[in-house]
Specification:
The structure holds two protein chains of two kinds.
Chain A lengths: L1 H29 L9 E7 L2 E2 L4 E2 L2 E8 L3 H28 L9 H18 L4 H61 L3 H17 L2 E5 L5 E5 L3 E5 L2 E2 L3 E5 L13 E5 L13 H13 L1 H4 L7 H19 L1 E3 L5 E2 L4 E2 L7 H4 L1 E2 L21 H7 L16 H40 L4 H35 L5
Antiparallel strand pairs in A: 1-4, 2-3, 5-6, 6-7, 7-8, 9-10, 11-12, 13-14
Helix pairs in contact in A: 2-5, 2-6, 2-11, 3-4, 3-10, 3-11, 4-5, 4-6, 8-11
Chain B lengths: L7 H19 L2 H23 L8 H38 L21
Helix pairs in contact in B: 1-2, 1-3
The chains are: A alpha+beta, B mainly alpha.
């Protein structure tokens, strides 16, 4: 009889354990479509079997074990960060590239070409008031084109600042959500699989914005750091980031130059330099590196300002060195352009002198020998310079501008290629996560061994292909 | 993509590298083995093209450029996979063998492919 009772007790215990296992399976099925849900499994613990002592044996339900592999989760997050960065690069550079038209139909290139044509026509008929008037009109168009491009870049800078602010707001919102989840864990929900899925879904979204590291603490809560050191979430507390404006130092070359954008931790620490990846890293790079390359900052004038300054100053020098009339006494020429004294504002404020009249344009080169259209001809040669004095950085003004536009295009091409590559890298990391979730240590070691063998062979083949492709491109004529 | 007969080998090479990329994305051990075969075929196709490249077909440069982008992508995918497994290897080493005196994770011993945890 005792034996029968023991058997019934054992069967009853096993049924309870399997009921719990069934509940775990039902939970898995119910959450099959929940983003970032990790399958859970019920473990069983053997019970002592010693009928003579009243231990009927059987099993009881043990811990519920998640199949989630945090290392694989982290790998997905790292690749997502790089994807977020590449996508933001594409967005920012696309809007910047639209400001540089090198087709010659509009913008600075078209304005340069029209002005060079006007100089050339003036050189043919230096006393023609129509030709002189046309020079002034086309010079006004050049100044206007510089102003518009500078204004477009300033708008891009403002947009970048707004996007940075909204990305920071989003990061802070995610951090608040995670702090709330931590509070639920602190309240005792640390085994809730749906909560675990919500936490990981939020972490995945957050990783698009910046490089985060999330580690589970001994109390079950998550500690989330930005750039490996700036706390975003600790237990039930969220630490808000903020955006700041960083003015050039008073001792800088351009103390009144455009400001940089800064990212500040909750305690006010400047973490801009540490934030180099994700959407935040991309936006900071656009605001503090890419755009200042054109518009200047505390330490540089910016290539657009350098071009405007070099061109306008050179035109003014040629004109003021010439004569409006030979006299006697000869009447010296007057400058065509007025330039802002601040080297970071030359492009945005470039103007044709408000007081100049067509007949004040100096066409006569004093020589000796004096040439009646010498200045006009020298100005028309700026289109195809023959001396270093008519160039900027060894290039004609048009070529220099084309180089600026080409640089944006190259950066955009690279960013587009990075997006494509990163999209596949994220897919790869997600696949790996799927494969390694729930596997045992010895299975992992076996996978590693298989991978190591495949890696060595594949990496050699890719190196060979890389070299062969480069050699092939070098041996092919351009345009074939 | 239609290509001139002389550039056909470049198309094949690119297609094989593309296939290798797909396999690297799948990243199962079997897919990794298959990716080697695809890469070997790509190398063979490229070598074939180079032997007859004295008179390159039209469009060969753009095809070679596209191939190069694909090779770059395959390299990045293999690199990210390697980085993942290297990290995993370190974790496994630390879990199964602890740390060395210099603080580095112990090497993973694969003789018996058994790891103990307790």
């Amino acid at each position: 009889m005792a034996s029968l009772t023991s058997s019934l007790l054992s069967a009853s215990g096993a049924l309870d354990a399997f009921t719990q296992a069934l509940s775990v399976v039902q939970n898995n099925v119910a959450n099959a479509s929940t983003p970032d849900y990790a399958v859970q499994s019920q473990t069983f613990e053997p019970l002592e079997f010693n009928p003579s002592q009243g231990f009927p044996g059987g099993v009881e339900a043990g811990q519920v074990v998640s199949s989630r592999d945090e290392y694989a989760e982290q790998a997905v997050q790292q690749q997502t960060t790089l994807l977020g960065q590449a996508q933001q690069d594409v967005n920012s550079l696309t809007s910047i590239q639209s400001l540089f038209d090198i087709s010659g139909n509009s913008g600075i290139t078209a304005a340069f070409n029209n002005l060079f044509s006007a100089f050339s026509a003036w050189g043919q008929t230096p006393d023609s008031s129509v030709a002189q008037q046309n020079v002034i009109e086309q010079a006004t168009a050049v100044a206007s084109a510089f102003q518009q491009t500078a204004a477009g870049l300033q708008t891009a800078a403002q947009d970048t600042g707004q996007q940075l602010q909204s990305t920071v707001d989003q990061v802070n919102q995610f951090a608040t959500q995670l702090a709330g989840y931590n509070q639920q864990i602190m309240n005792g929900d640390h085994t809730d699989a749906a909560l675990d899925a919500q936490i990981h879904s939020t972490l995945d979204q957050l990783s698009n914005d910046g490089s985060i590291s999330a580690t589970q603490q001994s109390d079950g809560t998550w500690l989330v750091l930005l750039n490996g050191q700036t706390p975003l979430v600790m237990q039930n507390q969220a630490f808000a980031l903020s955006v700041g404006s960083v003015a050039p130092s008073p001792a800088a070359a351009n103390p009144n130059g455009p400001h940089h954008l800064g990212l500040l931790a909750s305690d006010g620490t400047d973490i801009t330099a540490d934030t180099t990846s994700g959407q935040l890293g991309s936006l900071l790079n656009t605001a503090n590196v890419v755009l200042p390359g054109y518009l200047g900052d505390g330490t540089q004038d910016g290539s657009l300002n350098a071009l405007a300054e070099s061109f306008a100053s050179h035109v003014n020098t040629l004109l003021t060195d010439g004569y409006q009339s030979s006299g006697p006494p000869p009447v010296a020429g007057v400058p065509l352009f007025t330039l802002d004294a601040d080297p970071t504002r030359v492009a945005q404020n470039l103007q044709v002198s408000s007081t100049i009249t067509p007949d004040q344009l100096a066409a006569i080169s004093p020589g000796p020998p004096e040439v009646s259209n010498g200045v006009a001809l020298a100005l028309s040669q700026l289109a195809n310079p023959t001396s270093g004095g008519d160039e900027i950085g060894g290039l004609s003004y048009t070529q220099y501008y084309a180089g600026m536009a080409s640089n944006v295009g190259t950066l955009l091409d690279t960013a587009n290629a990075n997006v494509q590559t990163q999209q596949t890298a994220v897919a790869q990391a997600q696949n790996v996560r799927q494969q390694v979730s729930g596997v045992s240590l010895d299975q992992e070691a076996t996978l590693l061994l298989q991978f190591q063998q495949a890696y060595e062979a594949s990496s050699k083949l890719i190196n060979i292909l890389d070299q062969l492709t480069e050699d092939t491109m070098n041996m092919l004529p351009t345009g074939s | 993509m239609d290509a001139a007969p002389g550039a056909q080998q470049l198309v094949i090479a690119r297609s094989e590298v593309h296939r290798a990329c797909d396999l690297l994305i799948a990243s199962t051990p079997e897919a990794l083995q298959d990716s080697q075969t695809a890469l070997e075929r790509a190398v063979a196709a490229l070598q074939e093209f180079r032997r007859g490249a004295a008179a390159p077909a039209s469009g060969a440069t753009s095809l070679a450029r596209a191939l190069r982008a694909e090779v770059f992508r395959a390299g990045r995918l293999l690199e990210s996979l390697a980085s993942f497994y290297q990290g995993w290897n370190r974790i496994l080493g630390a879990m199964s063998g602890g740390y060395t005196a210099s603080g580095a994770p112990a090497a993973v011993s694969r003789q018996g492919r058994i790891c103990c945890r307790g």
